[in-house]
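ParB/Sulfiredoxin domain-containing protein (Faecalibacterium prausnitzii), 329 aa
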Amino acid sequence: MMNLNALKIDPEFQGKIPPLNFEEEQQLEQNILHEGRLLNPIIIWNGFILDGHTRYRILRKHPFIVYQIQEIKLANRYAALSWICQNQLGRRNLDPERKKFLMGKLYESEKLARGGSKERAHDENGRFTSMVQNDPLRAKRLSTCERIAAQNGVGPATVKRAEKYAKGVDAAEDAVPGAREEILTGRIKATDAEITALAKTPKGEIPAALAELRKPKQERQPRKAETASSKQTLSEISKSIQGHQRQLTAEEKTSLKASIDNRYQERAVANGSLMMCEVQGAKEDFIRRWNSIFKEYPDVFEDSDCRKIIHDLTEDAVQYLLKIKEKTL
């Protein structure tokens, strides 16, 4: 049997587990003393406790209690965090805020455990190709986000929002130790957007932001007014993508004026080099405008209508470029 003194506590691991209140811990201690043994083993990985922190503390107080330690094999630290989150999500008495936090941490941990790499194999010509594409069984598997969503009865977008929420909670805890439990137990009453925003708030400003969130809503300072661009609806964004009428930028006005002026001037004879400059400029303008939209309005990828529009526009562009490619190559 492993010596209790050999066990280690990792604050990050422990922080993912809801702590018992005083009465609950007292009751657990009485139950263990009555049984004279632990009914559930302490789960560890590389000597670190993954499940059983409270039982461990009780054992240190009463070393005569019979106990078991179960060690599990995991690939790395992120896999250990993933295991903890998954284990806690299996409990029935989770508050909504804590469930959201654990879902976000589970998604983050599983992505980090995977390292963002994809398994690859060679095709018959020796070229690299994704194994998922060549294996029909693996191709049917859900993505990490979809799998976590299905396991918890939510949509993939909820899991992605939960990850952002968890980052905000972590930022709060990093700046103000103890803030995590204040948020997850509801002592700090804030919207998801307010907690998520903490992840992008400078660390030195987070204590003041949390102090404001601790106040009753009617006593809080009004938030900064949103910019006009942040108020743009998804419908307006989709119109922008489709090329509906909009106000021209200064650069575009200058370009338009030059184009009009050139109509009344004698044109130089076009040649291949000049035309290729035009083609290259058109390509770069297309990429710049799409990148600008997707950078400023990433929510378009969460909206099913916008995703369909983007898909259709992309498909049209691909088909057009393929026709050009067939003519030139």
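The two ends are 72 Å apart (CA to CA). The longest helix spans residues 272-296. ok done for today
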